[in-house]
Amino acid sequence: MSERVWPVRVTVVPYALLAFLTAVTVLVRRTDPRAMLVDLVLCAAAALWMLLMFTLRPARRERFGPMVVFITGFVLIMAVLVVRDSWFGFLTPAGYFYAFVLLPWPSRLAGVAAVALVAGTAQAYDIPKTDAFGLLAYVAVLGVNVVGMCLAAWLGWRSDVLSRQRQEAVDALTETNRRLEVTMAENAVLHDQLVTQAREAGVHDERHRMAREIHDTLAQGLTGIVTQLQAAEHAADWRRHVQAAVGLARESLTEARRSVDALRPQPLQAATLSEAIADVVRRWSALHGIDVQLATTGTPRVMTPEAEAGLLRATQEALANVAKYAQATRVGVTLSYMEKEVALDVRDDGIGFDPSRRTASNGGGFGLVAMRQRIEALNGTLAIESEPGSGTAISASVPMTAAGAPA
Predict the structure, then answer these.
(1) Domains in the chain and their CATH numbers?
(2) Three-state DSSP class for 236?
(3) In degrees rounded to 5, what are phi and psi of residue 331?
(4) By the 8 A CB rule, do 128 and 151 touch?
(5) Residue 144: other Cβ atoms inside 10 A
(6) Which has the closest alpha carbon to 138: 152, 153, 149, 128?
C-alpha cells in the first residue's frame, strides 16, 4: 500500500504563517525587547510542537489520540499568542487546516470550535470588555466564528459522505459490470457447449433414425428378396418368385429414398393407418403364403405422422420376424383404438423363443431393439410375450397424447 500524500496546507503552510508572524513580531516589538523575547519563545515553542508532534512523526498522523493531543497543544499555544498580540490571529488558518484534515467526524467539530474561539478572540481584541455592551459584542463575534466554522465543517463532512457514497456506487456498478461481463463470457462458453451438444445429439438421433429406417426398409426388403430368390431355385414357377423379388427391390429403393428425405412411409402417403396396415398384411400374406387375420376395433383416431409411422413400422418388423424365425402357419394382427391409447397386437402360432435370451448381441437382431426405441420415443410401451413352442405375441401401444384427437 502506497504512503498517503499529505496536503501542503498541513505540512508547509503552518510553518510559513508562523515565520511570517515571527517577522511581524520582530518589527512591531523591536522597541520592547522583553515582550519580543516572550513572543519569540512562544513562536519557537509552536514550531517545535509542530515539528516533534506532527512533521517528524508521520506514523502518528492517522492515529486519533496523538492528533488530539497535538491539536490541543497547538491551540493552547496559539491562544496565548493571540491574547498577547492580536496579529497572531492570522495563525488560526493553520489550526483550521489541522482540525479539518487530522480529526475525524464528529471530533472535528470540537477542534474547529476551539480554533474559532481563538480566531474570534483575535478579531474582538480591540473591543472593550469592561461593560455589558462590550461583552455582548465579544460573545457575538465568538458566536459568529464558532457557528460559521462549525457549519462549514458540517457541510464539508456531508460533502465527503456524499462523495464517498457516489464512489461506492460507482465501485459497485463497476464490480457489477465486471461480474456481468464474466457471466456473459461464461454464458457464451456455455452456449457454445450447448450448441455443440445439440449438434452431436442431432447427429446421434439422425444416425439412430437412419439405422431404424434402413432396417425397416432395406434390410427387410433384402431379406424378402433373398427369400424369393432362394425359393426360385427350387420352384417350377420360378418366374413368380423372381417377379416378387423385383417388386420388393423397387419398394425398398422407394422407401430408402423417402427415408433419406425423412418423409412418411410410402403406404401412409395416401391412406389411413388401418388401410396402410391392411395393405402391408395383404402383401406380406401373399408373399409368404401365410394366412393373416386382420381386425380393427374402436373408433379410428387422427394420429400424428410419427405415431402412424411407428405403429406401421412395428407391424412390418413383427411380420418380418414371423417370416424369418417363427415357422408359423397363422398370424393375427389387431389395431385397437381405445380411450387413452392406440394399440397394435401381432400374434403367431410359431415355434416361439425366450425373450430374456434374445438380444442384438446374441443374434436377436436389431429389429426388436429398433422397434422398442421407436415406440418408447412416442412415450409408448412395447411388450413381448413368447416361450419356446407356444408362439409369440408382440404388443405396441401409443398414448393418445401422442396419437392426437378423435377423428
Answers:
(1) 8-174 (no CATH), 271-407 (3.30.565.10)
(2) coil
(3) -135, 140
(4) no
(5) 13
(6) 128
Q: Are 344 and 334 in contact (CB under 8 A)?
A: yes
pTM of the predicted model, to two decimals?
Answer: 0.48
Tens-digit pLDDT string for the chain (407 aa)? 456 788 899 999 999 999 999 999 999 998 999 999 999 999 999 999 999 999 998 888 889 999 999 999 999 999 999 999 999 999 999 999 999 999 999 999 999 999 999 999 999 988 888 888 989 999 999 999 999 999 999 998 999 899 999 999 999 999 999 999 999 999 988 888 887 787 777 556 656 666 666 666 666 666 667 676 776 666 666 677 677 767 767 776 666 666 655 545 666 666 788 888 998 899 888 888 899 999 999 888 778 888 888 898 899 889 988 988 888 999 999 999 988 899 999 999 999 888 877 654 444 556 788 888 889 888 999 999 998 988 999 999 998 765 444 43
CA distances from 159 to 45, 93, 165, 266, 294 (A): 35, 21, 10, 83, 93
Alpha helices (H) in 86-131, listed in sequence order: 92-102, 107-123
Q: Evaluate the CA torsion angle 96, 98, 101, 104 in order and state its sign.
A: negative
Is residue 260 classed as helix, strand or coil in its secondary structure?
Answer: helix
Q: How far apart are CA 96 and CA 112, in angstroms?
A: 6
In the chain the first and final C-alpha atoms are separated, in Å, by: 81
Report the alpha-carbon distance of residue 226 to residue 297 in Å, rounded. 35
Q: How many CB atoms within 10 Å of residue 126?
A: 6
Rounded Cα distance between 344 and 298, Å, is: 12
CA angle, 393 as apex, 340 and 220 as ends, to 5°?
100
What is residue 303's three-state secondary structure? Answer: coil
Rg from Cα positions in the chain: 53
Sheet holding 381-386, edge to edge: 291-297, 330-337, 341-348, 392-399, 381-386
Eight-class DSSP state of 56: T
Residue pair 294/285 in contact by the 8 Å Cβ criterion: no
